[in-house]
Amino acid sequence: MAFRGDVAFITGGGSGMGRLAARNLAREGKKVAALDVNEEGLAETAAGYEGIATYTLDVTDAAAVETAAKQVEADLGPIDRVYNAAAIMPLGKLLDQELTTIHRIMEINYNGLVNVTRFTLPGMLERGRGDFINFASMAGWLPILYMGAYNASKFAVVAFSEVLYHENRGKGVRFACVCPPPVATPLLQQGRDTVWPKALDDAPPIEPQEVLDAIEQTLESDGFWVFPGRGTSLGWRLRRWLPDLLWSRVHKVEGF
Annotated catalytic residue: which of 83, 146, 150, 165? Predict the structure, then answer.
């Protein structure tokens, strides 16, 4: 494991990727702060893991994020690693989705990440150490029909993360922007419960552990972009080189 610190701060810790990351670190003897709005999910995450402390948090509330960051450091010590994993994924055509839903996607997936950055990263930079991990998605590179609002939030995460990294190079903190294809977590069910793009059926979900392993490998090699899964980096290149070809495929699959 590339993590050389003691304390991790994990949003979205009540399920999916955040839960697995919390448990992995706890098994390694790390002190973990798992944060989520889902109190029941947090309790399930921490069950049987002495090293996991849980905190109820809505990442869209900047004041609450500031308070939580201070409380975690008071309880566990200086934060050495951050996973920005909190996200939602309801899907649908942009003119069919409720405005409140579209705004909520951006509030959680992007603005929440910005809030966490503001109140955790400065301390890490001041200490000159730590790992700062933002979960974007291949959806932050490849726009697909029915995914416009989610795409927009993840495109924002990609841009924010890239600039953040370049503004803070050489200051002792390692950065990673994680761009996986679909992953077998409860987040996918939110999409299936709304409108599921047929184009995603061409990409069977990968396992969450594969994503977490790729993060460790990238940090260990001083990389920044994390593209887990077979063919993911190729898809990224095709989007840059042949965007019309990809759109042609999407329209053919979706039938409009």
Answer: 150
d(CA 13, CA 33): 8
- Distances 188 to 12, 35, 89, 144, 214 between C-alpha atoms, Å: 14, 20, 7, 15, 20
Place of tokens 């090293």: 51
Pick the CATH number of 7-254 from 3.40.50.720, 3.10.20.310, 3.40.50.150, 1.10.10.10: 3.40.50.720
**pLDDT tens-digit series, residues 64-121:** 999 999 999 999 999 999 999 999 999 999 999 999 999 999 999 999 999 999 999 9
* pLDDT of 127: 98
Give the Cβ contact number of residue 246 at 10 Å.
Answer: 17
pTM of the entire predicted model: 0.96
CA-closest candidate to residue 13, choices 34, 40, 37, 32: 34
Using one digit for the tens of pLDDT, what is the confidence trace for 139-159? 999 999 999 999 999 999 999
165 is catalytic: no
Let me know if 240 is exposed, middle or buried by CB neighbors in 10 A (0-12, 13-18, 19+): exposed
Q: How many CB atoms lie within 10 A of CB 235?
A: 18
